[in-house]
Each structure stands twice: as C-alpha cells, then as structure tokens.
Design brief:
The structure holds 2 protein chains of 2 kinds. Chain A is of the alpha/beta class. Chain A has 17 helices and 8 strands. In chain A, β1, α3 and β2 form a beta-alpha-beta unit. In chain A, α2 packs parallel to α10 and α10 runs antiparallel to α11. By secondary structure, chain B is an alpha/beta fold. The chains are: A alpha/beta, B alpha/beta. Chains A and B meet through α7, α8, α15 and α16 of A and α5, β4, α6 and α14 of B.
C-alpha cells in the first residue's frame, strides 16, 4: 500500500504516548469480540453517544472516525479513498466517510495491509447522532445500505441551535426532543443486546462521563498558562480516550493523569518550548490527521498552538452533569457538543472569540475542510469578525482531515511562514 | 415560446429589488420576505399578509461573497450572498431559512447577518423523521413552526388567524394542483401543451409572485396550452434530477439538441408542489400549523434528510414520473459541493440503470451550457436517440 510522506508529530506529554497503545489494544479487543461474539460491537459516531453504550456491559463501541484518523496518522488513507471514489462517491465528500466506505467496500478484505489495531470490525448494530453534523446521519444511512440493511441502526437527531438561542438558554422542545431520542436509543441498545436498562448504571455512567468532562475541562483551563504546558500536537491525540471511553472509569483515570501532568508542568513553569514562547495560536476545526507535525513546525517560530476548537467538542464544558438527571445531562452534553452545530453568531462571538481571548492567542489557524460544509462554510466570515472586532488575525488553510492527496506541504508551510512572521512583527510593534 | 410565458418575466426578477411583484406588494404597505429552502412554511407567511419569495440566485460572477464564505458551497447560494453584499436584497423586510442542507445552514445565516433585514428567523428541520421517529419529529417541527408563528405575530403586531391560515393553504393547494396540471400538459406524449423550457420559466416565476395571482394566470396558461398545436416530442424524453438551476439553459440545450425535459424531481420542480397539505376537518390555528408541518415531513424528501431509505423514496417518486411521462433517460445535474445529492447519487444511478434507463450525471457550477456540458449532453442524446425515441 502506498504511503504519503507528511510530517508526523513529536509529543512532549507522557500521557499522550499512552494513547496509541491504548487504541491498538482496544481495536484488538474489538476484533476479538467480533470473532468470538462475547460482546456486541457497535459503530458510534457524532459528538457522543458512546456513553449510552457503556450503560450495557456487553457492548463494545467502536468509532470509525477514530479508525480513519488512525489510518491518516499512519498515512495509509489514499487507497481506501480511491475505492470509495471508484464506487461513485464524489471526491469532495467528507474524508471520514470516504475512508470508512473504501474500507468496508474493499479495504477490509486486503489481508496484506496492517490496518491500525487490526482493522475495523463489522458491527452488530450502529448508533449515530447529529451533534457534530447531519452528514454523520447520512453517512450511517449509506453504511446501512452497504451492509444490505442487515445491521440495525438508531440515529439521534440532535437539533442545531439556531441564532435565536444562546447556549445558556435553550428552548424546551430542543431538550425534550433530544431526551426522548436518548431514551429511544437506550431501548434500541437493550433490544440489540438482550439486556434490560439498568437505571443505576445509567446514573453511574453519567457521573463518570461528567467527572471525566470536568477533569478535561480543568486541564483545558490549565492550558491558559503562559508558557503553554501542552500544545495541539499532544492535545489532539489525548482526545481519543475521552471520546471513546466517556462514561467509564478508564476515561476518568486518563483525564486525571493528563490533568495532573499538565498541572505539574504549569506549577513548574514547564512550557512546550525550551525557550521563550513568542506566539500563541488557536487551531480551529478538525485537524489534518495525516500531518500533525504541522504543530511542531510552528515551534520553529517560537510559536505554540495552545488551544483548539476541536478539543472542546467532546466533553461537557458548561458545568456539572447531574447523575440524578441522567437524560437531561446527556442531552445537554450532545446539544452543546460541536461548536459549529450552534448558530454562526454564537460560534464566532461566544465560543471562538471567547477562547481566543481567554487563551491570549496572537492568531488563529482555521483549517477549512472542503468535505465538511457545516464546519467550514462560515470560516472566512469568522476570520473577518475576528480581525475587525477582536483584532486577531486568521490564517485560513484548506484541505481534508484524512485525505493528503490535495495537501501541498510546501505551499502550506510557506503560508504558515508568512503568517508567523506577520504575527511576530505585530507583536513587536505592540511592545 | 408561448407569448404569455415570455411575458411572465416582466412580473418578477431574480433580483428582489428589481421585482415588480415585490414593488407592487410593498406599495400596498405589505411585507416581503425572502426564504431559502422549500422546508420553510410559506403558507404561514402568506396567511400573515407577507409575500414569500424564494431566493433564486443568478448566473453572476461571485467575487465579494468569497470574502465571507468558502467556495466549497453550491454556486447558487453563493450568488445570493453576492446579491446581498451588493445591497440588492434591501427591499426584503425579512428573511427565513431552514437547516435542511449543511451548506445552506451557514450561508443563509451569513446572508441574513450581513443584509440585516428587520425580521430574521431560522428553523431547525428534524432530519430523521420516518417510521418510529415520525411522531417525535412532528412534535419538534410543530414547535419550531409555533415559534415562527409567534415571532411573526410579534413582528406584524397582530395574530395570524385560523381563517387566514385556512385560506392560505387553500390557495397554495390550488397552486399545487395547477402546477401538476402544467406538468401533465408538458408530459402529454401525443400533444404536449408546454415545452420543458416553458415549464422551467413557469417554475421560476411561480415562486416569486403571490400565489393567488399566480393561480389566475396558471388557469389561463392551461387554457392556452389546451388549444395549442405543439408537435409531439420526437427526441429523447428526459427526466432531470437535482436541486435547481440559475437559468433555463439546460432545458434549452436539451431541446436544441432534439430532446425535451418532460419530468423532474428538482426542488424547484416537482418536489416543490407534488404533495398537498391535508386540510383538517375542523380547522383551528393549531391543527392547520400541524398540517403544514406534516406535509413537510411526508412530501417527496430532499436528499438532505437522513431518514431510512430517503434515496429509495426519491427513486419511487422518480419511477412514478418516468411511467407517467414516458421518460427515456435520466440526467443528474447536481451542483458541485452538494453533499446530500452527491451521497444519494451513486445508488440512485445504479437503480435507474438496472431498470434499463440510460443515465448521464454531471456537476453544475455557474453555467450549464459550456462546451463540455454541451458535448456530453449531445453525445448522451445521440447515444440513446435510436431505439428509445418516442415518435408519438
């Protein structure tokens, strides 16, 4: 299988280095249970829903998105993307969709390829939500078709939060609609697994999901420190345990060890860079998983990508989840998930701008994904507002999250060079 | 072209500030709203004395809009933003959109936020709304429409009554029935009443003018069509699938090359009017609103929806039209960057081909009739021309 040469990232956090072995082990288990049927394998996607799977002890949830990101990090996506395109799917569709589809249509039968974790097992059932986009639901429907409608599927239509609302005040029917579907999903999993819903276990899952979220949020807040204790090259990789195991003790333990490590670095004043941190960057949107080394490249300019929008998408960052109100807590978590599933107005002013200010960033790098219309369309508008209203410049890069074929490393770095030099000059003038 | 159809363009414009229908309505002291997407409850606006006009976009260069929105978006929507940035939407008192497709969600908000109309509303459409999810989806959409109704009443400073809603639905249902008759007249094998291009002109006009006036005009057009002596189509009879077009070029091109569009499932075509709103037996403001919502959920779906087998449902609609209008071939002309349609397309093409229908698929950006599209359509029509020609 051909490989595309892009930059792999270099990590500086000990906890991050544990992630890939965890992923490998997890997928190995997923492939094992898919063979011996000791547990039901469930595909999950979207902003969450994984919590619901952990309520049942005989379910093993698997994120195809994570598999796609792992394929991209191992720089092995192009042949899979080409299979999907050969089947008629347009090249401008979501890279995640094309990679998984290419794998399911043909890639899975290639015994000569060492896929991450041994590959993606075939599921017993599927769950998805639109907390991160409606395309996820469309993708799952297409996957149902690929499986010949033999694999049961339940979708949670998490409604988009329109401009008339803020994240603090949601209309009741938005919560009710999501809550009822969460109940429907739990019933669906119960039917698929032959297990009854255990309400105590549900409360426990919500407690653990909330605890991991709080620890992760605490860690995110620690990243406001100057110098930055952890850059995006680490943070983006640390997300997987929180996404995959939300609702389990494992996620809590990982989030705690990460929080402790970051706190220790802040207490000791240990930054990402060995020397002075001259520039702080906010990285916006899903990253190019095939070249996370781009974040290390920033170090050349004494710059660190100190925070990301993406790492805010998968945990509940608006206070505590309440185990005594498990359905409402989960609904709020899914509704508050991905920022771009909230009005453009709220996303730009209350989320991106807020973080840019809180994390004292000098500039924003927005990654415009041609396959992801909802997360990308408004980025030039956001860049204008950030410049005109908040005086924070944005570099807009274009590409896909897992498709390296249109990514030109040299020109991207040229643009990064120019942006960094401009930011350094601005900073000098401010002084 | 029928003279009366040529005259239709005088009553409206793709540029709202230049539309006579808009000017006339506003001269009477009434409000005009622009809307994007056919999931917006037009009937509710019309009941409140508001003229709803659909954003049509135009085949213009997009320059300024690229500073506000990425180019990864259908050209149609980007031209509307361009119009807004050129201050060409300023005659609109309000704007209303629905989150149907992902691209439309972002760009509609940017259009509204930059054009700053005095009323602006955005509806979240439930996307998984069939089978066991139908009831939940209906509950949610009805609540969304109630929010819209309340906000409209606040804006207008008066209640929108059940009687007004009932009247509006009757007018819109009559419009739907007349448009179906227009399609039947076009699809008539022996003696077509309209050409494909003429029907495309009618469709552009009908979404830009008050429906009660449109109904009067449609009746007279149908009378004229009945008296017409248009020759039977001798070339391939084409069904066209997609969303909408910035002009009528594709219809003209197909006719110029010897075929005719006799059927479609465009959102500016049959999907706009095919299904009526079911009038409740004892109409009240609540159940009329519910009836409008149910029609949105039950009508021929847009590919943006994520219910189970949406593409199959669309195919069912297409197959019925193929039989009804004796279609020989299908052309998919989908806007580049339209994810929803691009997702359903491979499956739909395969299914239609399995029925023995020739299928051509190409992507649309600003224009259709460039040399490449012309060559492809020409070759396609030539390829299918032989056996499948209907000589009527």
């Amino acid at each position: 299988m051909s490989q595309v040469k892009t930059d792999k990232s270099v990590k500086s956090i000990a906890a991050t280095k544990l992630v890939y072995p965890m992923v490998k082990e997890y997928y190995a288990e997923a492939n094992k249970v898919a063979q011996d049927h000791s547990k039901k394998v469930c595909y999950v996607t979207g902003a969450g829903l994984v919590d619901l799977c952990w309520v049942y002890d005989n379910v093993l949830p698997v994120f195809p998105e994570n598999f796609n990101a792992a394929c991209a990090a191992k720089q092995m996506t192009p042949p899979l993307l080409e299979v999907a395109e050969g089947a008629g799917y347009a090249r401008e569709l979501c890279g995640y969709f094309r990679n998984t589809t290419g794998y399911l249509l043909e890639g899975k039968d290639r015994k000569d390829v060492a896929y991450p974790g041994g590959g993606l097992p075939i599921p017993d059932f599927m769950l998805a939500d639109s907390g991160s986009c409606y395309f996820h639901l469309k993708w799952w429907r297409e996957t149902e078709r690929i499986f010949g409608y033999k694999i049961p599927c339940y979708l949670i239509d998490v409604p988009y939060i329109p401009p008339r609302m803020t994240l603090d005040v949601l209309e009741q029917h938005y919560l009710d609609y999501t809550v009822k579907q969460i109940k429907g999903a739990l019933e669906f999993i119960g039917n698929a697994t032959g297990q009854k819903l255990n309400e105590d276990k549900l409360r426990e899952v919500v407690r653990l999901s909330g605890e991991a979220s709080e620890l992760f949020e605490e860690m995110q807040n620690l990243r406001k420190a100057v110098p930055s204790p952890m850059g995006s090259e680490d943070a983006l990789s640390c997300l997987m345990p929180l996404v995959q195991w939300a609702g389990t003790q494992q996620a809590v333990d990982f989030a705690r060890s990460l929080r402790d490590e970051v706190k220790d670095r802040v207490d000791k004043g240990i930054g990402v860079l060995p020397g002075e941190e001259k520039l702080r960057i906010l990285f916006d949107n899903i990253p190019p998983w095939f070249t996370l080394g781009l974040f290390n490249y920033l170090h050349k300019f004494d710059a660190v990508s100190v925070i990301e929008s993406y790492t805010y998408f998968f945990h509940y960052s608006k206070g505590k989840m309440d185990p005594d109100k498990p359905y409402e807590s989960l609904a709020r978590k899914y509704l508050y998930g991905c920022w771009f599933m909230t009005s453009v107005r709220e996303t730009v002013n209350s989320l991106i701008a807020r973080k840019a200010i809180d994390y004292k960033v000098d500039g924003i790098i927005s990654y415009a994904l041609y396959g992801c219309k909802i997360a990308t369309g408004f980025l030039p508008y956001q860049a204008k507002i950030m410049q005109e209203k908040y005086n924070i410049p944005t570099l807009l890069l274009e590409g896909d999250m897992v498709d390296p074929r249109d990514y030109a490393d040299g020109p991207v770095k040229n643009r990064v060079d120019a942006f960094m030099e401009m930011l350094l000059e601005r900073k000098k003038q401010k002084r | 072209m029928l003279e009366a159809i040529s005259q239709l363009s005088k009553s409206y414009s793709r540029w709202p500030n230049q539309s006579n229908a808009v000017k006339q309505w506003k001269n009477d002291g009434k409000k005009v709203f622009g809307y994007m997407c056919s999931y917006v409850p037009e009937e509710l606006l019309f009941a409140g004395g508001i003229l709803p006009i659909k954003f049509l976009g135009d085949s213009i260069p997009v320059v300024e809009a690229n500073q506000y929105h990425t180019v990864f978006m259908c050209y149609f929507a980007r031209t509307i933003l361009e119009m807004g940035l050129q201050n060409e939407l300023s005659s609109l008192d309000g704007m209303i959109g629905a989150y149907s497709c992902e691209g439309g969600c972002d760009i509609f908000q940017i259009i509204a936020e930059t054009a700053k109309p005095s009323y602006y509303q955005f509806i979240t459409l439930p996307h998984d709304n069939k089978g066991e999810k139908k009831e939940l989806a209906a509950e949610f959409l009805i609540e969304e429409f109630k929010v819209v109704k309340r906000s409209l009443e606040e804006y207008l400073g008066r209640e929108i009554t059940a009687a007004e809603m009932q009247k509006s639905i009757e007018v819109y249902n009559e419009n739907r029935s007349l448009l179906r008759q227009v399609y039947d007249a076009r699809g008539n094998v022996e003696r077509p009443g309209f050409t494909g291009t003429e029907v495309a002109e009618i469709m552009n006009w009908v979404v830009e003018v008050p429906k009660d006036e449109a109904n009067i005009k449609l009746k007279s057009l149908l009378e004229e069509a009945a008296k017409r002596q248009l020759p039977a189509v001798t070339g391939p009879r084409i069904h066209i699938s997609g969303t909408l077009f910035l002009d009528t070029e594709i219809f003209q091109l197909i006719e110029e090359l010897g075929g005719m569009v006799v059927s479609d499932d465009l959102c500016m075509g049959s999907r706009y009017f095919w299904d009526d709103i079911k009038m409740p037996e004892t109409p009240t403001a609540d159940n009329l609103l519910e009836a409008i919502a149910m029609q949105k959920l039950e009508k021929v779906p847009c590919s943006c929806l994520c219910s189970e087998k949406v593409a199959e449902d669309r195919l069912e609609h297409i197959k019925k039209l193929i039989d009804k209008y004796q279609v020989n071939a299908v052309i998919f002309a989908v806007h580049k960057w339209c994810d929803s349609h691009a997702m359903d397309r491979p499956f739909m093409i395969k299914q239609l081909q399995d029925l023995g229908l020739p299928v051509l698929s190409f992507e649309v950006e600003r224009t259709i009739g460039d040399a490449q599209a012309r060559t492809r359509i020409e070759s396609f029509l030539e390829m299918i021309g032989g056996d499948s020609r209907v000589t009527g």
